[in-house]
Amino acid sequence: MEPQQRSPLLEVKGNLELKRPLVKAPSRLPLPGSRFKRGLDQMEDVLEPEKKRTRGLGTATKFTSSHPRAPAITTVPQAQGQTTAPKVPKKTGPRCSTAVVTVLKNQKPGPAVPAQKPGTAAAPPKLGGKKPSKRPAWDLKGQLCDLNAELKCCRERTQTLDQENQQLRVQLREAQQQATALGAERRTLEGELTRVRAQAEQGQQELGNLSARVLELEERLGTQEGLVQELQKEQLELQEERRELATRLEEQERRLQASEAALSGSQAEVASLRQEAAAQAALLAERGERLHGLEMERRRLHNQLQELKGNIRVFCRVRPVLPGEPTPPPGFLLFPSGPGGPSDPPTHLSLFRSDERRGTLSGVPAPPTRHDFSFDRVFPPGSGQDEVFEEIAMLVQSALDGYPVCIFAYGQTGSGKTFTMEGGPGGDPQVEGLIPRALRHLFSVAQELSGQGWTYSFVASYVEIYNETVRDLLAPGTRKGQGGECEIRRAGPGSEELTVTNARYIPVSCEKEVEALLHLARQNRAVARTAQNERSSRSHSVFQLQISGEHAGRGLQCGAPLNLVDLAGSERLDPGLALGPGERERLRETQAINSSLSTLGLVIMALSNKESHVPYRNSKLTYLLQNSLGGSAKMLMFVNISPLEENVSESLNSLRFASKVNQCVIGTAQANRK
Ligand code: ADP
Ligand code: MG
């Protein structure tokens, strides 16, 4: 791509730019003879002397060319016949006369002897070598002689002129022939010129086209050159990129080789790991088998432990003195240490009661009577909710293993039953009751057991039994405490399972859902409360959780209900009180409560004594709980005690009832396995 090297097309254009006139270029057309090589101007130059000569004859050429057929010869004799100044001969033809007249016209008309222009050929001959002097008038002979001489001269001159005229005619003919030839030649040349011009025009046009083409090609060339430059640039970039890629490729290849080496190492490792994994899987299966065996063994031992602890257990809990309450006298309640010393959890409680009536009879105040009680566990006023729950956690877990569990809170109103079961006010986690704690514990153990292939589901219900009527505490939108009428029915014909009609059974799987249920139950109780009648303390609240577990892999199923019961206040109506209309109602309530609580006692006794008839149906409470009492069931009773001296009578009643229960032993529990 050397810029100096120009294409042939550019050469053409260069020539065009020089603007050489084409007409000046010698024609390449073949001309006929060398004569035609001369231009028209030269031809005219040839003719010029002829013209010059003819000009001297005035317009003679004019008429000879315009009247070629005029008989030129005829004029000579006529002219010869003239002796003097010419006159128009009448007998001559119009053409001849015109020629003569024209000739004569060009000569100035004047005297008979025409004045000779100096230098002309027809100058009069000088006579005797000198101009004759003027003859006197009288010398007529001399004058005649002069005239003759002059005449002679004129004749000679005429002759000369005729000859000249002849010559001129010849020349004229030649000239005319030449003119004719030249005319033909001119026409030929004009034709040629026209053709050449046409060619020139065509050439110009072609040249124009070529110029346009050249411009176009130059433009394209420019574009192509730009493109070439761009491509060259791109090529450089690509080369650079290629170098980079080659470097990277080398790097990648190196890495690949390293990876391949590592891979082959890894493959060997994988193979050995696979073998190891297979061995581990076999071991795992074996361990799983063993784990299952161990789990079953754990359940068996757990149950044995629970049985050793007793299928009916009684815990006594004494609530603290609340702010504003009178401080009980020192030593009113004592919690003696167990056989293992103070480190042993307390199981005994001593209550000192001063009997004023006995004192007045003897006149001396009688010493307070000591009442000792022993339970599976005693919780003094300072015991926290967590401490209490710790003791029942294992029992709750029995429900997961398939043993029905029943936990009661028994005691007079205000002794702390609801606090123990549901928890204290304000949602403080520290004072959370047994129900939320038990459920949280169950959810977490169920989660652990899911690792061993167990799947658990929980369904909750919460009802209250007031005056032997059952009401759903989870009923949404309950108005004025009047929930739908609920009845305790068998789940199906021939089924042992009991269910409460119109009550909601809600699946739960997390703490929040349980919280929501407890909140709803509290709201329903608050609606039912009236100024005169603290109904919640006059009714039993039964929280039931139906637990269902399944081990799909082994086709095992287990399920048992967990019952958490907040019993109605166990206090008796003061027999000394006057019976007004309100008190009568209260009496009826109390009788109902007392009846159901004593039925509970009777049922437990009957179970303990293995009586053939257990009076479950004597109260709604025992009827509802019959599947969770006796047999394989495990029962725990909290007896809640007020620390106040004023409540000593009710406290003793509660402690006595609880002691009776504590003496009961219910037969060996059987897990509900299917
Ligand atoms: P009940 O349900 O037996 O009628 P509550 O559970 O309502 O009695 O308790 C009565 C009052 O005593 C409540 O204000 C409760 O907060 C409080 N209380 C009960 N037990 C305890 C305890 N262990 N610690 C602190 N306060 C308690
Ligand atoms: Mg209560």
From TrEMBL:
It is found in: Cytoplasm, Cytoskeleton, Microtubule organizing center, Centrosome; Cytoplasm, Cytoskeleton, Spindle; Early endosome; Nucleus. Residues 27-68, 107-136 are annotated as: Disordered. Residues 158-311 form a coiled coil. GO terms for molecular function: ATP binding; microtubule binding; microtubule motor activity. GO terms for cellular component: centrosome; early endosome; microtubule; nucleus; spindle. Keywords: ATP-binding, Cell cycle, Cell division, Coiled coil, Cytoplasm, Cytoskeleton, Endosome, Microtubule, Mitosis, Motor protein, Nucleotide-binding, Nucleus, Phosphoprotein. Pfam families: Kinesin. SUPFAM superfamilies: P-loop containing nucleoside triphosphate hydrolases (SSF52540). GO terms for biological process: cell division; microtubule-based movement. InterPro entries: Kinesin-like_fam, Kinesin_motor_CS, Kinesin_motor_dom, Kinesin_motor_dom_sf, P-loop_NTPase. Its main location: cytoplasm. It comes from the Eukaryota. ATP binds at G411, Q412, T413, G414, S415, G416, K417, T418. Residues 311-664 form the Kinesin motor domain. Binds NUBP1 and NUBP2. Interacts with PPP1R42. Belongs to the TRAFAC class myosin-kinesin ATPase superfamily. Kinesin family. KIN-14 subfamily. PANTHER family: KINESIN-LIKE PROTEIN KLP-3, PROTEIN CLARET SEGREGATIONAL. Minus end-directed microtubule-dependent motor required for bipolar spindle formation. May contribute to movement of early endocytic vesicles. Regulates cilium formation and structure. This is Kinesin-like protein. It comes from Molossus molossus (Pallas' mastiff bat).
